[in-house]
């Protein structure tokens, strides 16, 4: 039994068709927002202002009595996957990969750290990485001229540590709050 319903809406998806899984990105009908006592609008800093406004308007339309809270994902550190040591991002060339629902939000968060550039290789949400995926990622990152490869915490737990190619660029994990 639930005491309260908190709904999370991604502002980066404001213009996506409101179609349910598996054809779309929504897990429930937008009418479900009406159950919310709070609506959290994520990626509020990374999304275009009009997308945030549209998402807030949708929340207020379907849940007029709910509190609407703007949130953002912030990367607080990039740590080497093998040692946990911090990685210096400013001015570095990054090759990022992820299998998450909002890869564009991940890239936007990385860009806030001041790298020289970010290239992205997307995988389907909840992707389980096979050793051949890691070989492919490492080769792609080398071709991009990356100083190191970055992935999300969610993706990092799906990687077999011993499967990362020894000749690949250093692998880092983005720690968020």
Task: Give the tags.
three-stranded parallel sheet; 25% strand; 23% helix; alpha/beta; five-stranded mixed sheet; 4 helices; 177 residues
Low-confidence runs: none
Report the biggest beta sheet as strand number plus sense, adding barrel if it closes. 5 strands, mixed
The 3D shape can be described as elongated
Q: What is the succession of H and E elements?
A: EEHEEEHEHEHE
- What structural category characterises the helix and strand content? alpha/beta
Q: Within the largest sheet, what's the order of strands?
A: 4-8-7-5-6
Report the total helices. 4
The percent of residues in helical segments reads 10-25%
Radius of gyration: 18 Å
Number of strands: 8
* Distance between the ends: 28 Å
pLDDT average, as an integer? 92
Q: What portion of residues belong to β-strands?
A: 15-25%
Description:
By secondary structure, this protein is an alpha/beta fold. Helix content is 23%, strand content 25%. It has four helices and eight strands; from the N terminus they run ββαβββαβαβαβ. The strands form two sheets. Strands 4-8-7-5-6 form a five-stranded mixed β-sheet, with helices on both faces. It has a three-stranded parallel β-sheet with strand order 1-2-3, covered by helices on one side. The mean pLDDT is 92.
Helix and strand arrangement:
Blueprint: E1 6-10, E2 38-42, H1 49-62, E3 67-70, E4 75-80, E5 93-98, H2 103-111, E6 117-122, H3 131-144, E7 148-152, H4 153-156, E8 170-176
Parallel strand pairs: 1-2, 2-3, 5-6, 5-7, 7-8
Antiparallel strand pairs: 4-8
């Amino acid at each position: 039994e639930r005491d309260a319903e908190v709904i999370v809406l991604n502002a980066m998806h404001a213009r996506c068709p409101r179609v349910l899984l598996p054809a779309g990105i929504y897990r429930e009908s937008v009418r479900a927002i009406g159950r919310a006592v709070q609506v959290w609008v994520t990626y509020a800093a990374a999304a275009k202002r009009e997308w945030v406004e549209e998402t807030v308007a949708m929340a207020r339309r379907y849940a007029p009595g709910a509190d609407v809270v703007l949130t953002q994902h912030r990367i607080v550190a990039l740590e080497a996957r093998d040692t946990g040591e911090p990685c210096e991002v400013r001015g570095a060339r990054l090759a990022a990969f992820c299998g998450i629902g909002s890869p564009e939000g991940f890239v936007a968060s990385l860009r806030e750290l001041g790298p020289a550039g970010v290239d992205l290789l997307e995988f389907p949400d909840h992707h389980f990485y096979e050793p051949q995926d890691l070989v492919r990622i490492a080769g792609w990152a080398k071709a991009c001229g990356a100083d190191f490869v970055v992935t999300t915490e969610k993706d990092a737990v799906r990687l077999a540590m011993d499967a990362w190619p020894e000749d690949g660029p250093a692998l880092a994990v983005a720690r968020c709050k």
